[in-house]
Design brief:
The chain has 406 residues and is α+β, with helices and mostly antiparallel strands. It has helices at 3-15, 18-57, 85-94, 129-133, 145-149, 159-165, 210-218, 236-250, 266-309, 311-319, 324-360, 369-395, 399-404, and strands at residues 60-65, 98-113, 116-125, 137-140, 154-157, 176-179, 182-190, 206-209, 225-230, 261-265. The protein is elongated and about 105 Å long.
């Protein structure tokens, strides 16, 4: 029996029980749609995190005072004052694999403009900070080297700060705001960056010269952090090694001594976040894949019922010359048609659900072609796997016993 005849017979048999065939497909449809939707959410989240980390500076390196927590014990307070301005100058002058360096000190407090106030933090940074964090000035100007040398009370602010302190829409450039009780003149406004991967508002920010924050706000001589930007993302590890070597030398740390500083890179954060999202995606896909398994069991169940119902038909076909192979192929083709049709509908439903989630819930989604092919391939294999045994049972029936079956 050729394939065309097999296909016609299979379609006719399925058409005689349309509703039952649809219910059989439903498990496959839900399974495929679930897998595609879950993978789309996982991949969308991963791409969103990668994009936001890239916007933060994918080649950014953060140097903090004090060693890592050892055995669950945090280092004492004195070890948190190990970064000095001299370290910043040394890194800027001697580390060749770094293209930009900035000190970082910060203080939390209240921003005040007339009757408007908002809790925020004031960050003291250098001239390179904008390029390291990939911020841009949308209005006005950044503070100058002269402002840093004189510890001038000037600042640039983010869009959120402008909205909180100037709700009437006034131009903030040149206006005086207070951080706690200290006045600062706004010289520029940063271009909006929105929220980052950790849910932090990147526009709720005030940047001032690091000398101003150190002398007029904190009254300290040490740095809370030094941020750098490697020449390229590929040279980040090289930059970390070079910075470590330079700081160990300037801090006079012995060969077997423990570092009194900690270096982190965005690559580490990116790798950690990617591992987390990949694990979450796999978990969600496995849960959704259970639907495919249930759908496959449904196919096997219905094919068993079909074989039982059509036992006499099978006997008649075999008595007029149909071979066991023809009977096997017929029922196998029926199972494959159910799984492929369900798979196609499931793919369309899965893509539609992913788009709907993106539009309604504003979740980042990304439907990758391989996820569609994988889901479709799995549902086809599921149909063959679970349809084979009932088909094998049908092909092994004795023609005489099948004809006598009531």
């Amino acid at each position: 029996m050729n394939f065309g005849n097999l296909l016609k017979i299979s379609l006719r048999a399925l058409g005689n029980n349309k509703f039952r065939s649809f219910l059989t497909m439903l498990g496959i449809i839900i399974g495929v749609a679930s897998v595609i939707t879950m993978l789309a959410i996982g991949q969308g989240s991963k791409r969103s995190i990668q994009q936001q980390i890239s916007e933060m500076g994918s080649n950014m390196i953060m140097i903090q005072p004090g060693a890592d927590t050892r055995g669950g014990v945090r280092q004492d307070a004195s070890s948190m004052q190990t970064l000095k301005l001299e370290d910043y100058e040394t890194i800027r002058k001697q580390v060749t694999s770094v293209v930009a360096v900035s000190p970082l000190v910060s203080s939390s407090g209240q921003l005040i403009n007339g009757n408007n106030n908002s809790p925020s933090s004031l960050q003291g940074v250098g001239l390179d900070y904008l390029s390291i964090r990939q911020y841009q000035i949308s209005e006005g100007d950044y503070f100058s080297e002269q402002d840093i040398r004189t510890a001038a009370k000037v600042c640039v602010v983010g869009k959120t700060v402008v909205e909180n302190l100037f709700p009437d829409g006034n131009d903030p450039i040149g206006k005086i705001i207070r951080f706690n009780s200290i006045p600062f003149r706004i010289t520029g406004v940063l271009k909006s960056k929105g929220y980052n991967a950790m849910g932090r508002d990147q526009d709720d920010i005030v940047l001032a010269p690091y000398t101003t924050v150190m002398k007029r706000i904190l009254s300290v001589t040490y740095l809370q952090q030094i941020v750098c930007s490697a020449v390229s993302e590929r040279r980040t590890e090289e930059a970390v090694e070079e910075i470590t070597e330079v700081l160990r030398y300037t801090h006079k740390i012995k060969v077997d001594g423990e570092d009194n500083f900690t270096i982190r890179s965005q690559q580490e954060l990116s790798s950690m976040m990617n591992s987390t999202t990949d694990l979450l995606t796999i978990l969600l896909s496995c849960i959704a894949g259970i639907s495919l398994l249930v759908g496959g069991i449904g196919i096997m169940n219905i094919m068993y019922v079909s074989v039982t119902e059509r036992t006499k038909e099978i006997g008649l076909r075999m008595s007029v010359g149909a071979r066991s192979r023809d009977i096997l192929s017929q029922f196998l083709v029926e199972a494959v048609i159910i799984s492929i049709t369900g798979g196609v509908i499931g793919v369309l439903l899965g893509v539609f659900c992913a788009i709907l989630i993106n539009v309604v819930a504003q979740w980042p989604v990304f439907v990758q072609p391989w996820s569609v092919l994988l889901s479709f391939g799995v549902c086809t294999v599921t149909g063959i796997f679970f349809g084979w045994y009932p088909a094998r049972k049908a092909s092994s029936l004795n023609p005489i016993d099948a004809i006598r079956y009531e």
